[in-house]
Specification:
The chain is an alpha+beta fold. The chain has helices at residues 16-27, 30-33, 65-76, 119-134, 136-147, 152-160, 166-171, 174-177; strands at residues 40-42, 56-61, 80-89, 92-101, 104-111.
Length: 184
C-alpha cells in the first residue's frame, strides 16, 4: 500500500508504535508548531522498520538558521534533554534539535531545501517502495540487520548487494522506483 507521508494521519491506522508516535506528536502540537517549515516525518517508524530505541525524525525547510534556532529554543527548549546544533553537512548548513517528548526522542532537522527534496525523505520513500516490492521477509531482514547494529541505509545496501556509499547509491534507485500516485 502506498502511503501519503505528507500527512501524519496514516499513523493513526498503523501499528501500536505508530499510533503512540501520532498521539505524542498531536498532544504536543509538534507539526502545528513547525507548520511554516513544511515538516515531514521521516525515518524508520513511518515505514515500520524501527527498533524500540528509534527516534522520530522530523525534517524541515529553513532559510535562516539563526531564526530557526531561536524558534526551536522557544518552542522546544524546555523539553527534556534538549540540545541544538548547527553545522555544515554535505556542504549544506544543517540545524538539528534533539529532545524527548513522553516516551520518544525527537530529532528536528532543518536545511534550506524543500523537505521533499531532502535525502531523509527521499531515502524513506525509496526504502518504503523496496519493502512493498520485496515483501515482509525483506522487511524482517532489514529489522534484523538493524538490531545487530547496522544503520538503515547500509542494511538496505547489504540486502540488495549494493556497493559503495549506501546513502548515495540508494538515491540512484529513485527513478526506477517512482510511482505516479503517492496516496493511500
Amino acid at each position: 500500500m502506498i502511503i501519503d507521508f505528507k500527512n501524519i494521519d496514516y499513523l493513526k491506522q498503523g501499528n501500536s508504535r505508530q499510533q503512540s508516535a501520532y498521539a505524542v506528536l498531536v498532544k504536543h502540537q509538534v507539526f502545528e508548531k513547525l507548520e511554516k517549515y513544511s515538516p515531514l516525518l521521516t525515518g524508520t517508524i513511518p515505514i515500520e522498520i524501527d527498533l524500540p530505541e528509534s527516534d522520530l525524525d522530523i525534517i524541515c525547510q529553513c532559510t535562516d538558521h539563526r531564526e530557526f534556532e531561536g524558534f526551536l529554543k522557544k518552542h522546544f527548549g524546555k523539553e527534556k534533554d534538549f540540545s541544538l546544533t548547527t553545522a555544515t553537512q554535505n556542504g549544506m548548513d544543517t540545524t538539528v534539535a534533539i529532545f524527548k517528548l513522553d516516551n520518544f526522542e525527537i530529532e528536528i532537522f532543518g536545511q534550506n531545501l524543500p523537505t521533499e527534496k531532502q535525502n531523509a525523505y527521499r531515502h524513506m520513500i525509496i526504502e518504503h517502495r523496496l519493502i512493498l516490492k520485496k515483501g515482509s521477509d525483506f522487511r524482517q531482514a532489514i529489522i534484523e540487520l538493524k538490531s545487530k547494529g547496522l544503520k538503515t541505509e547500509p542494511a538496505f545496501a547489504k540486502l540488495l548487494g549494493i556497493k559503495g556509499d549506501p546513502y548515495v547509491e540508494l538515491l540512484k534507485l529513485e527513478d526506477n522506483l517512482n510511482w505516479k500516485h503517492e496516496s493511500k
